[in-house]
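The freezer alarm interrupted the setup, so I double-checked each line after restarting. Inputs confirmed:
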Amino acid sequence: MAMTKSKRRRITAIIRYAVLSVWAVIAFFPIYWIISTSFKLDTQWFAWPPYYFPSPPTLANYLNVWFGAEEYAQTQYAISSQKPLISLYNSMVIAATSTTLSVLLGSMIAYGVSRYRILSEVRMFQLLMLRMIPPIVVVAPLSLYYTAVGLIDTRFGLILVYFLTTLPYAVWMTKSFIDEVPLEVEQAAEILGASRWRTVFEIVLPLIRSGLVATFLFILILTWSEYLLALIITKTQVTTLPIELSKYQGSTEGRVYGRQAALAVGITVPLMIVGLIIRKHLARGFSFGMVRR
Amino acid sequence: MARIELCSLEKYFGAVRAVKNLSFTIEDGEFIVFVGPSGCGKTTTLRMIAGFEDPTSGEIRIDGRVVNDLEPRDRGLGMVFQSHALFPHKNVAQNIEFGLRMKSVPPEERVKRVREVAEMVRIGHLLEKMPSQCSGGESQRVALARTLVTNPSTFLLDEPLSSLDAKLRRELRAECDRLHETLKRTFIYVTHDQEEAMTLADRIVVMRAGEIVQIGSPMEIYSDPVNHFVADFFGSPSMNLVAGAIVQTNGSARFRSTSFDIVLPEHFKDVAPGSGTLGIRPEHVDVTLGGGGDIELPVRLVEPLGKDTLLYFEAGADRAFVAVTEGLGMAAIKVGERVALSLDRPRIHLFDDTGQRIKGAR
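Predicted 3D structure, all chains:
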């Protein structure tokens, strides 16, 4: 007997949700595991059978890894330096500065491309191709040059390289938003007496605000979590959080999972906070103009 | 005051010559309508006057002063765009206020002027709304108000009504006319709609393929078209244009086509024979039910419109031969019936095989 339409639809729905639920568990389990581990006592990190819930939950990992609180360092895994806080500061300065520069200059270039065609389509594509070059290819020569000019192991050195490597993204993303602002709206402002700069600041920028915010977050995530360039270009004076995170897996220190997890959570939280603050713009920005403004 | 002179204006887009050697003067206070099919260069011309396109060569003068190198904002013009181009992130009042703010008008004065202008175009109740909350007609009124408030010497209107429905179009057309009456400013209006051109213009500039085909008052354009193109473009329903041949027999000129053969009026008696086109407006074709007209054609379609009835006749071409008759008296005529028609002789137009009008000896 043929299934009725509604029955068939229901079965499809059940299968769909079953598959998606399994996938959700697979995707979210590691995240859960890291968060859970970050609250576990040292003895529970690699206990078998595993502890799925920390019991009792402890802040020891956080206090030790972030603030170097000695009293929580009962085991050989104790970390007593305060390096992560310094790294957090470095990461914040480097990511925020390079991202701001990138979006600022990128949107200016994008405006020029969109309105004055200062770059041909081929050039725009080449700009994107620049970004396709594997960083590993340039990192060694770059470190040589950086050593020569004294940029190695400096914040400015990292800011510069992050700014340059993310600029193509900034140009491409913001251009797609600027393209969407009708030329006539700008011309209307112009003939009403607005100067070019005034038009950009009063009309264009407010209209692409969501896009700028989305671009900013996208590039912030890239620079915040960049590892390879930071690894080669910085040595001891300036470390960023991703480098710090890797240090907790060193063979001499053993596997300090709880501390590492606490660090990992700490690295993620700032991005989440930024995302929450600007979430109103993100949905509109990331829809890339598929939704009418 | 604004007298706008266009001198030998040329515009190339790459290899495409969009505007060809345009020379023409717009007098102060005139309502000029540029009309023509899409791609004829009318919008490009308007945008050159506005300053959004640089002419490839030629000069634009406003009150005698060459403005080629002036920025749009320094030309003292106001423009209304086809897309209305309201600022979506500003409310109606802020939209209208924008131009005043750019000219550093003090705030109290701005509020007063915005209110005045809003009343003038009847959008006083919309001031707090966002453009997205306004209907098409309302948006266009806001766009008008935004331009009006800056008190420009000349209004440039680029197909301002083409995105609106027919009823609103008529309403806003009347509005434009009223504004022109009260403001006594120069209006330059671009449209592809011949009806808008006819109703609004003091003078119509008909353009085709980057060139001016004819300049004249609506009546001149309508009753005295220089060529086949203008004759065909103006009027609704359009002029009947029948291809055929002009022949000379016994000292009088005749026009022969596959479906009829008539004697041409006296002033055409010396016209050289050859192929050509006869044109006559539908309202100059009379239906003579008793018979005895100039020509006799079978009816293809009857369209009773209420006030008038349109009769479409088979004339051996794709396009039907049309007659307009008043009232619904003729609505009962059956399709296929042969009906006698008489043409208003003095109103017959002739065009030669290049499409140019043959004037005859008048």
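Quick read of the result. Chain A has 13 helices and no strands.
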